[in-house]
Specification:
624 residues; mainly beta; Immunoglobulin-like; 5 domains; 7-stranded mixed beta sheet; 5-stranded mixed beta sheet; 46 strands; 38% strand; flat
Length: 624
């Protein structure tokens, strides 16, 4: 027979093989007595064993397998030493064509055999839906739009899903296209290097309509390129049994006895309800069955305390399997009717009894109480006689409407129900407010630091930026002034000279409001290798001289006094150019001793001239 070439693009939606199929070979005459023996007809195995007749004196065989409908080669297996071969991967669904030839010791090969066709028609295997959260009952689903999954050999044109509701005895068929385009993040089809659309095998389908509670059965079958349908898969059974969602009570509740409430589950006919003490959840106080509706009123007043309850749905239809739902998440509630204040939490201080709050307008928060219409808030400030604030809130939080002054505060909250009942006042909640003032966390006051320290402070809520002021005590009150710092850290650009420093930080809000300066922190920069103050040159020289018994001590007069370093009192306004601070003490130059002998005078003079000719040892701003 003769193979003719096929012009134009392939019809296949599959990935193309790089092999040249016999169908693409021009005018190839085939004359051979070799015959492929099996398989023939229709096979239910995607990896069938292909067998052929032995040829005398053959040393090996070559096998060529192609997709008959798509006219594309699937693979060529060369140098097979026996007269059969089993593919390692699944063949495409549909008609498959095979050829075989013999190879001989002199390097020659026989002509290819006559082609043998067979049809691969394998039913899919359904593998899902499954519930990974329930390993004991993986086919009991919480999801009402589950994803059906299956396995199948490649090359199907499409799949059909038969979904049967075993409770209501209804069914439908869903068609799913195979070999769909691979899409990018923007939803556009992707192309390969040959500008062909990249396609993918589809093996799952997420249902688009919500299933009601019940039992279901699913089958899947494939359709190949030749229009042949595979058998239906084996049945796969699953249950849609969503957990009930509880609505109330949660947290603290005014109601006692409480009304237990939950959302309806679609398809459910009744519910189980279990109520227990939170401390003994396995010992039910109420264990109710066949409850209809979506609520249950506890008939008797509960002892004040903590409780927990669960709800589970059922679907019962006469003559059909019962579906039992998944238990709801536990709902914890309390009949202790006193609000519990939880904030402001303040900054981390390491002391659980100390709450330092840097907010200019802190927010008081407390646990919500079920059925509360409003809350009364009472605020007292330490060391004051009058009540600082009494107000109400319809929510379980309250933010101060004005910036508060620094100091210690105590807060109480009381809930009022929709019927006018009131709880007792909460346990007092105390905190210390800085009034929107940051707290410098590094350096620690009185410590030595490196010449380029990382100065850090606590954040102030609502602050857009921060200003920092560093004074060089006894030298320059305005040594560093920087504004618009976005982070809560600052490091000088240049090393700080040896000396004592004082630092303040303040916050600036997004509306431009400038908050007060922080408390000052004093620190020192120790003598370092990068600088030697000019006043210490005599000490440097003296250290190089021999010790003699007739050394004379010459005291150096005190340095001239500089301008006052008093920045003002603590009553300076927040936006003042000066900061609240006590006065900064002035430093005098140290008293040093020189040692000079006639024998070393010339040497010292030369050393001094050489030292003055370089700048590495001199402090910034010193004139030579």
């Amino acid at each position: 027979m003769k193979f003719e070439s096929i012009s134009g693009k392939q019809r296949s939606r599959r990935s193309k093989s790089g092999l040249q199929a016999p169908a693409a070979v021009e005018s190839l005459e085939v004359r051979s007595l070799m015959t492929v023996l099996s398989p023939t007809g229709t096979v239910r195995d995607a990896t069938p064993t292909i067998t052929w007749e032995a040829v005398d004196n053959a040393t090996s065989y070559d096998l060529w397998v192609s997709d008959r409908e798509q006219q594309t080669a699937l693979f060529i297996q060369r140098n097979i030493l026996i007269t059969n071969f089993t593919p390692a991967t699944d063949l495409n669904l549909g008609k498959t064509r095979t050829w075989v030839r013999a190879n001989f010791a002199d390097g020659s090969s026989s002509p290819w055999s006559l082609p043998t066709d067979f049809i691969v028609q394998v039913a899919p295997t359904v593998t899902g839906p499954v519930n990974p959260a329930l390993s004991r009952l993986p086919t009991k689903l919480a999801d009402t739009t589950p994803t059906i999954t299956w396995t199948s050999p490649p090359g199907a044109l499409r799949f059909e899903i038969y979904l049967s509701d075993q409770t209501s005895l209804t069914s439908k068929i869903i068609t799913v296209k195979n070999l769909t385009p691979v899409l990018d993040a923007d939803g556009f089809a992707q192309f390969d290097s040959n500008h062909e659309i990249i396609r993918q095998e589809v093996r799952s389908y997420e249902l688009t309509d919500n299933l009601v509670m019940g039992s279901y059965r699913v089958f899947v079958r494939s359709l190949d390129d030749g229009g042949r349908l595979s058998p239906w898969s084996a049945a796969y059974n699953f249950e849609v049994a969503p957990p009930t969602v509880i609505t109330r009570p949660t947290g603290v509740t005014f109601q006692n006895p409480p009304l237990l409430e939950w959302h309806a589950v679609a398809g459910a006919t009744d519910y189980d309800v279990v109520l227990a003490r939170a401390a003994a959840p396995n010992t039910p106080l109420y264990n109710l069955k066949f409850r209809t509706g979506t609520s249950y009123q506890i008939p008797r007043t509960l002892v004040d305390g903590d409780y927990v309850f669960w709800v589970r749905a059922h679907r019962r239809v006469t003559g059909r399997p019962e579906t039992v739902g998944i238990w709801s998440l536990p709902s914890n509630f309390s009949t202790i009717r006193v609000p519990v204040i939880t904030g402001p939490a303040g900054i981390e201080s390491g002391d659980p009894n100390q709450r330092i709050v840097t907010d200019a307008r802190p927010t008081v928060e407390w646990l919500r109480i079920d059925k509360a219409a409003r809350y009364n808030i009472w605020v007292e400030r330490a060391n004051t006689k009058a009540t600082y604030l009494r107000t109400t809130s319809s929510t379980n939080f309250y933010q101060f409407e004005q910036d508060i002054q620094p100091g210690k505060y105590m807060v109480w909250v009381q809930a009022v129900s929709t019927t006018g009942k009131m709880t007792g006042w909460s346990t007092p909640y105390s905190f210390e407010a800085t009034g929107g003032v940051p707290i410098i966390t590094f350096p620690v006051s009185g410590t030595n630091v490196i010449p380029i320290p990382d100065i850090t402070w606590t954040p102030v809520p609502d602050a857009k930026s921060y200003d920092i002021w560093i004074a060089w005590v006894g030298e320059d009150f305005d040594y560093i002034r920087v504004s618009g710092i976005a982070l809560t850290t600052f490091a000088p650009t240049d090393p700080l000279p040896t000396g004592t420093y004082r630092v303040w930080v303040r916050a600036v809000k997004s509306d431009g409001t400038v908050l007060p300066w922080s408390k000052p922190v004093n620190f020192t920069v120790a003598l370092n290798d990068l600088e030697q103050p000019a006043g210490e040159v005599p000490e440097l020289l003296a250290a190089l001289l021999p010790t003699t018994s007739d050394v004379q001590a010459d005291s150096v007069p005190d340095a001239a006094p500089k301008r006052s370093m008093d920045p003002g009192t603590s009553d300076v306004s927040a936006d003042s150019g000066r900061m609240p601070s006590e006065s900064i003490a002035m430093l005098s130059a140290p008293t040093v001793f020189s040692a000079m002998t006639p024998e070393t005078e010339g040497f010292i003079q030369q050393l001094a001239e050489e030292c003055m000719s370089v700048e590495w040892w001199m402090p910034q701003g010193t004139e030579t």
